[in-house]
Design goal:
Among the domains are: 128 residues, Orthogonal Bundle (Arc Repressor Mutant, subunit A), CATH 1.10.10.1330; 131 residues, no CATH class; 81 residues. The N and C termini lie far apart (104 Å). The protein has a 4-stranded mixed beta sheet with strand order 5-4-7-8, with helices on one face. A two-stranded antiparallel sheet has the order 1-6. The longest helix has 37 residues. It is of the alpha+beta class. The protein is built from 24 helices and 10 strands.
Length: 518
């Protein structure tokens, strides 16, 4: 058959990911902070987008004035406001005030001559102080944040003490470099040899400066290990005798609760060992943790769940985290009148309007999707909200996706870095998705992994020094409660919760019992 050219008509279907669709998917998994940053960038690029203020606020988050939004109404008049008594009144413009004064046969001038600026004039010596304070010139309310004292960091606290300890300029520079190498807990991260090579100093000189710095406050700072941190604190208390020194050098045995070996190494009896352990517990393993290390971020819930009067649950989006973006249609109509059709300016405005409308629709769809997923999670985990973690049901993404008729990937993106405030506390949405563990009874309900871990913690918390449960005993206890679990799985859950083995727990409980009896 010879080769020849020809024309054929073929119809196919394909899924095309447009840039706008990709951004809509990205909006689903954005956190509140990331979403605000993205919206701020879009508002900066798009003149038709505006961020409205929350209820009871004036202006907008982007700094627009109130008249910007008044003009968006197209009437050119000020909007009505709600008075404290519940009635509506118009904006307090001069014409409005004069009209109200005529109707009410009164004026709006100051009827209390003893108040106002005359009182400030009576105390001229305080005038300069008032002007220097926030709001002194304009009469605005004071911002309490302007009077809050700055937080003292560990670095600032140590830098205040170094001049009293180091006399030479070179020693102070080395000490300053050592301060910069501390972590948030107050430990020195780099080795002496590395620091000495970096500074071009001898290792012995750096070691001597470090030894001097270890005498600063807080006790235990500039330590290179936990043993050295505890030894520094004991030395300052004049309690670092040979027995205590041997104890802090064998903290691995203390972690294993091997008290018999510690008694032999330290050369003490049970009573002295208990006293030494009590002193160790009173020390601070993280001397730098008490100082300000950085601003702490508060988690804002995306969904709020409340109990309804009829016994159900009310699920609502947190209004504080909802972005309020509007498209200024009035501005678009005003500007488009002065643009030529099919011109560069007209095309730019059309593109801005299309992007603005897409963004508002995407944000609305994002809020609806989060609401659907959250409502289905609350419906599935109703027993958890009513009775606690013991009744947390096993749940996966597929179950929620099928219930709300969405894809699993969409549910996964919605539940990423989103939080729900419930009467039981604040939880990430991922918390409610746990694997299923079979029931010990035939035909019984399955259990979630988080509920099983909670039962393991309860069983261990009820132990006594004379009856410490092994992993096999925990398996039996869970089976009596209707949970079928293998011993190796119990061990895996126990280790994941940082719970020591039965041998170590027995040693610790017996030691604590002796301390209590002593």
């Amino acid at each position: 058959m010879g080769l020849s050219a020809g024309l054929f008509l073929k119809q196919t279907q394909s899924l095309v990911m447009t840039p706008q669709l990709m951004q809509s998917i990205q909006l689903l998994q954005m956190t509140h902070f990331e979403l605000n940053q993205f919206i701020a960038q879009e508002v900066e690029k798009n003149p038709l987008l505006e961020i409205t203020a929350g209820d009871g606020e004036s202006g907008t988050e982007t700094g627009f004035e109130d008249d910007t939004f008044d003009s968006a109404n197209g009437d050119g008049e000020s909007r009505p406001s709600l008075a404290p008594d519940g009635d509506w009144y118009e904006g307090s413009s001069p014409a409005t005030a004069e009209r109200l004064g005529d109707n009410l046969d009164t004026g709006f001038e100051n009827v209390f001559p003893d108040d106002g600026p005359a009182r400030r004039a009576d105390a001229p010596e305080l005038l300069s102080q008032w002007k220097s304070m926030p709001g002194g010139e304009s009469g605005e309310d004071y911002d309490l944040d302007d009077f809050v004292a700055g937080h003292v960091t560990l670095r600032d606290h140590l830098n205040q003490q170094i001049p009293f300890l180091m006399t030479g300029a070179t020693d102070r520079l080395v000490a300053q470099h050592l301060v910069d190498q501390l972590d948030d807990a107050g430990y020195l991260q780099d080795g002496i040899a590395e620091i000495a090579a970096r500074l071009g100093k001898g290792a012995g000189d750096v070691e001597a400066i470090l030894t001097s710095l270890q005498s600063l406050d807080p006790p235990g700072v500039f330590a290179r290990s936990l043993s050295e941190c505890l030894a520094i604190q004991l030395r300052q208390k004049d309690r670092l005798d040979p027995a205590m020194d041997a104890l802090v050098k064998h903290l691995d045995l203390l972690a294993k609760r091997d008290f018999a070996s510690l008694r032999k190494i330290c050369g003490v009896d049970d009573e002295d060992l208990l006293d030494m352990l009590a002193e160790i517990r009173n020390l601070n393993p993280k001397p730098g943790a008490g100082f300000e290390s950085g601003p702490s971020e508060t988690i804002s819930p995306d969904i709020i769940v409340r109990a309804a009067p009829d016994g159900s649950w009310m699920v609502e989006l947190n209004p504080d985290t909802l972005p309020r973006v509007l498209v200024n249609q009035a501005y678009f109509q005003t500007v488009s009148k002065h643009c030529r059709k099919n011109g560069e300016d007209s095309n730019f405005l059309s593109e801005c309007l299309q992007n603005a409308n897409w963004l508002t629709r995407s944000l609305d769809q994002r809020a609806k999707t989060i609401m659907k997923v959250a409502a289905e999670i609350v419906r599935q985990q109703d027993a958890f909200l009513m009775h606690g973690v013991d009744h947390l049901r096993p749940l996966n993404l597929k179950t929620v996706a099928e219930a709300i008729k969405m894809h699993e990937s969409t549910v996964s993106r919605v539940t990423s870095n989103k939080y729900m405030l419930t009467p039981r506390g604040l939880f990430e949405l991922k918390y409610f998705f746990t694997v299923s563990i079979g029931s010990a009874e035939e035909g019984g309900d399955s259990h979630s992994a988080e509920a099983v871990r909670h039962r393991i913690r309860q069983l261990i918390a009820q132990e006594t020094p004379e009856a410490v449960l092994s992993d096999d005993d925990i398996v039996i206890g869970l089976k009596n409660g209707g949970v079928e679990l293998a011993r190796r799985t119990v061990a895996k859950y126990r280790e994941a919760m940082n719970i020591p083995s039965s041998v170590q727990r027995r040693r610790e409980k017996r030691a604590l019992a002796k301390v209590a009896a002593f």
